[in-house]
Structure formats: C-alpha cells, structure tokens
Amino acid sequence: MKGEKDITELQKICLEVRKDIIRMLGEAGSGHPGGSLSAVEIVVSLYFSVMRHRAKEPNWKDRDRFILSKGHCCPLLYAVLAKCGYFPAEKLLTLRKLGSPLQGHPHNIELPGIEASTGSLGQGLSVANGIALAGKLNKKNYRVYCLLGDGETDEGQVWEAVMTANHYHLDNLCAIVDRNRLQIDGNTEDIMHLEPYPEKWKAFGWKVIEIEGNKIEEVLSAYRQAEKIKGKPSVVIAHTIKGKGVSFMENRVEWHGKAPKKEETEKALEELNAAVSLRTK
Amino acid sequence: MELESTRDGYGEGLLKLGRENKRVVVLTADLGESTRSHWFQKEFPERFFQMGIAEADMIGTAAGLALSGKIAFVSDFGVFVTGRVWDQLRVSIAYNNANVKIGSTHCGITVGADGATHQAIEDIALMRVLPNFTVIVPADAIEATKATIAASKINGPVYIRLGRASLPIITKETAEFAIGKAELLKEGKDLTVIACGIMVHQSLEAANVLEKKGIFARVINLHTIKPIDREIIINAAKETGAIITAEEHQVMGGMGSAVAEVVMENCPVPMKRIGILDSFGQSGKPEELMREYHLTADDIVKEAQNILKRK
How far apart are CA A209 and CA A226, in angstroms? Predict the structure, then answer.
C-alpha cells in the first residue's frame, strides 16, 4: 500500500469515505457521525499513503499498526478498510446489525484489519504502547499509530499511558488526538478543561506537532515529521471540525452520536456528491 | 511440614518459563518483590516491564504485548489487578482474547495485618464471569508453579489466584496438573468436601478428624474454577449425596457458587458453602483471621456433621 498518492487523489478518497460513513449510519439507524467525519483525513492519509500494510495479508508481521482508541468512530475505519480491500464494500451496510463483523465498536476477532477491540474509552493508547514495546523487543521497524478523541483524554488511563510511552522512549509510536473540541455533553473545555493542551503533552516528554487536521497536506507532513523523531513518542494534535463535510453536522454537538434520518442522509449525500463533482471539474 | 507461599511458587514458575520460552514477558505495577516477579526481572531484565503504580495502563500494555505474540504475565496484588481494572480486563484482554496471564498475589484474608483494603475476597467472582478467562486457584507452592507453566501453554487469558501466607506443601511434585481437571485427594462415601487454595489443606485435616468419628469424607482439590470439572462434581453429588465447599473468598459468586451451579442443574443434593459471608476482612494474624471468619478444619468438621442430618 506504501507509495505516495497525490493530494488531490487522497482528497477524493476522503469524500468517498465520508459518503460511505453517511450511508452506513443512515442504514444502521444509530452510531457516531461527528467524530467519524472529523478524523477522515487523519485515517485516510495513514492507510493510503503512510502505513505499510497488506489488505490481503492482514497479519503480515512487518505491518504498521493502527489502533482506534476512540472506538465509536469505527464507521470511518470500516469504510477505509473496505476501500483498501480488507473485506467487500457490500459488508459496510451491515454495520451494527445482528451477526455482522462490523460491530458497533470494533472487535478484532470478528474483522480482519482490526488490531484491537476498543470502545471503552481510554484504553487504546496503553494497548498501542504494548505493541510498540513488542516491536522494540523484537527489533522490528513497524510503527504504531493510535487515534484518540480529545474528550477521551479526560480518562486518567490515557495519562498513565502517556507517561509509559515517554518512560520507554517509544519513538515508534505516534498518537493522534482528534481535537474537534466537542464531546457528547458539550464543549470539551466546559465538560473538563483540557487546555493548555499541547503543553500538557510536552510536559510529559512528548514531541508535539499541531496541525489543521482536515488538511491532507498538513496531516501528511505531520506523519513525516513524527517518523524522524528519535528517543521519544510523538503526538499529532489535529485541530478538526466535528461533522466535517456535512454542513448541518459541522460543529454541532448533537451529531456526536446520532444517525441521520432518511432525508438527512439524502441531503448529506447530495452535499458530498456536489463536492465530488466540484473537485472533478 | 514444609511451608511455602503460592506467590513463591508463581515466582519460580516465571523463572522456569523465562528460561524455556523467549516469548514470556512479565509486567508489574511497583510490586516486583512482593509478587516474586523480581526473580524473573533479575535474570531477564529486557523482558520485564516496570509499569509504575498504574494498573489500568499495565493491563492495556500487557494486551498490546500479547497481541504482538508475547505471553504476558501481569504480576500484582489481587485487589488492584481485578476490581480496580475490571473494565480493562474485560475489553482489552477478555474481548481481544489476548494471551495475558494474571498472577494475582495477596488474595484472601490471610494477607493479614494490611487489612480489608488489601484482602481480595471477591476476585474469583469477578474473574469467572468474564468470557474467555480461565480461573485457577493453586493449593500450594508446587501447584502454583505447575499452574503458571500450564497457563503459558494455553492461548488465551488466565487468572491465577495466589496468596501471601506460607502454606504446607500438600501436592506431590510428580502429580499431574491439568487445567480443568480437579484432583481427588481422598476417597470417601459419606460426603464430599470441595476446596480450593488454602482451604484444601484445611479440608484434608478435617477429613482426618471426621474419619476418627466414623465419617468418610471425599476431598477434592478444585484448582480450576473455570472451566469447571463438571464430571467430578456430579459424581461426588451422586456417590456421596452431600457437598461442602470451602474457599477463602466470599461465598457469593465464588468457587462454592460455581459448584452449586453444576450441582443444582445436574444432581441436586444438600450443600453448604463455607467462605466469607458478605463482609470485609480486617487486620490480624492470618491464623486469627481464619478462626474469626470460620475458615478452619474445625469449621469444616462442624458443617460436615450438620449436613449429614440433611441427607
């Protein structure tokens, strides 16, 4: 999968993934659009440009690993995995249905390409640390990426893991925080004050890279920068727009965990299709 | 009589495993010496991970190591490595079916003077309800070493319940240890005492006292609580007609409850569960606490005589 795609190509994939997310959630009737849409560029860049991985050989030993710590945003990961060829795209519409491998939160036993089951917030970074430690122990060159929500970092376990990654100098680990500034109950700063946010990570010994997380070129450059850091872990604090790409969902907290109804699904897809045709002109 | 704690047996098991299997790694949360995992640390420092006083993160890290092909042994006190991190055990380990083994020391009230905060007496209940987990309670140090090694040979999460107190060695080095297969320690026809951990020794003593009174008690060491040996339990119910269970744990949800589930569904006979009755422990010497909470051979003898009247 490694090999640079140009930025226009990646932007096109992002639009397709956004359409898949809307279709899946519309069909499922429940789920989390806001945080799935905000992190599209973050995950698409990884799977289509940065990470070494093989869709036909999901357990390839030298693959780079991705852990979705904010497991509720799995529609995004499922859409990306399907597009990479991990499983047939038709499966996407089985999201959250009885017997589907596309569980409401990701389950690694059910679906190829899922490294670890997540969904109970705050646990993914610890798991990523373990995978990174094993990489060091086995003298493997793989890198480990872990995506967290900003609200998720209210959890104490995240900061335990932040200490561990620094203590063990896990420079093969790159955390990404989707800093969309909203969580279920409201604005992150009203729910549990996070700022000064980059300073917190810096104080814990991490290399901090702050970017506009919905801009592909900035996301790619952040990953390239992180790869070069030696002796400590890196965190990309990605400032994003929750619900990005669907006008009526953008920056609206009520779209954290609510699926679009039929007419809303159609409206969202119309908007995204318009963006596609604009881009192909 | 030779005395040794089950945590010592665990530490020896880790050391043996470290020598024979490079995939074995060990983690602790600032309790290396107390859990005897520091013996492994001394010999294999590169495979030992000190995680600080941060148990939740330790569980996740162990899961990550296991998902990358390691056999991860987490060494910590029972109270901190079960209830405190139960959701991490549930999602990061059990749901992932991660190959993590929990070496849970300082279980039961025989922790002694540290008191209730440090006495895990709910852990069997908490762990046996988690899918994919195997739950083992060794009866002495020899069995603890065997259980540690056996745990490494199965792919999936295992909980090993260990104690701080020195115990008599009652099993034989040569005895076969198979996960899920309970051990018949003494034949008997009048009733069966099913015990685990420290209570196995007390049950054997009780059986000897009962024998002098003309009562013949079968004694079973139920070292694996899950998967449970249904056959040995059902046969005991059918052949002896009365069952007493004895554990250093709450009777609610513990080993006795697990036995009762099998008996009730297959061959209901009079039962009595000996254990801690819905209370916390307290500070004291281990032997004082055993008496205070009615966990002695004498208590088993008394209940055996009572249960015979219900047959």
Answer: 8
| Closest residue by Cα to residue B275 from B209, B207, B194 | B194
CB B152, CB B24: distance < 8 Å: yes
**Residue A2, pLDDT score:** 43
C-alpha span between A163 and A151 (Å, rounded) = 19
Measured between CA atoms, the residue of chain B closest to residue A166 is B51
Q: Does A126 touch chain B (CB under 8 A)?
A: yes
Task: Supply A2's token pair.
Answer: 């490694």
pLDDT in tens, B43-96: 999 999 999 999 999 999 999 999 999 999 999 999 999 999 999 999 999 999
* CATH H superfamily, domain A7-280: Thiamin diphosphate (ThDP)-binding fold, Pyr/PP domains (3.40.50.970)
CATH number at residue B96: 3.40.50.970
> Is residue B127 a contact partner of residue B133, using CB atoms and an 8 Å limit?
yes
Is the preceding peptide bond at B227 cis, omega within 30 degrees of 0? yes
Do B236 and B154 share a structural domain?
no
pLDDT score recorded for residue A5 = 66
Check if the beta carbon of residue B111 is closer than 8 Å to that of residue B80: no
Which site among B49, B61, B100 would you substitute to test the A interface, given the most A Cβ atoms closer than 10 Å to its Cβ?
Answer: B61
